[in-house]
Amino acid sequence: MTNDIQLPGQQEAVIRHSLRLLRSFEYWTGSSLLNVNGSAREIAQALFAAPFALVSHGTEPDPIFNYGNRKALELWELSWQDFTQMPSRKTAQEVVQQERNRLLAETTSKGFSNYSGVRITSTGKRFYIKDGILWNLLDENNHYCGQAAVFSNYEFML
Question: What is the 3-state secondary structure (H, E, C) of 22-82?
């Protein structure tokens, strides 16, 4: 992955989802995920280029990623197309699935959670996330529409 990954096709749905990510984070945490101004497109581009990893998945029975910013795509070593077709459970090894499931359920009931844990890239590299935040996504009518996670503190494991 290179740093020249652009916001996918400047798609209106991705731009709307980017604003949803920001609004939902602020709703649950009372903090801003990214201090940025401008048009919706400029805000979405800034979020995509942010220095932290940001991902989200939908509400499918086996949730599929529907967003990964440039840092996340680089970290998981995937293209936008591949990332947004992957079940989010595939980023955690089988041995930590139970803890991941507990965290997702806790977040569903509380709105957001802090987390740390091991995740795995598409090529099998493991990394440890520290001080991540997982939160529920709300659509424009405040209906639950998935979950998102953000982190900037991580280290690869041997």
Answer: HHHHHHHHCCCCCCCCCCHHHHHHHHHCCCCEEEEECCCCCCEEEEECHHHHHHHCCCHHH
């029975």: which residue's tokens? 61
114 token code pair: 């802090």
| CA dihedral sign, ordered 40, 46, 48, 50 | negative
Backbone conformation region of residue 131, classed left if phi is above 0, alpha if psi is from -120 to 50, else beta: left
Per 3-state DSSP, the chain is made up of helix, strand and coil in percentages (nearest 5) of 40, 30, 30
Q: Where are the domains of the chain?
A: 8-156
Give the CATH class of 8-156: alpha beta
Q: Round to whole Å and give the CA distance between 75 and 121.
A: 7
Three-class SS state of 110: helix
End-to-end alpha carbon distance in the chain: 21
| Mean pLDDT in order along the chain per 10 residues (158 residues) | 54 93 96 94 94 97 96 96 94 76 86 90 94 95 96 94
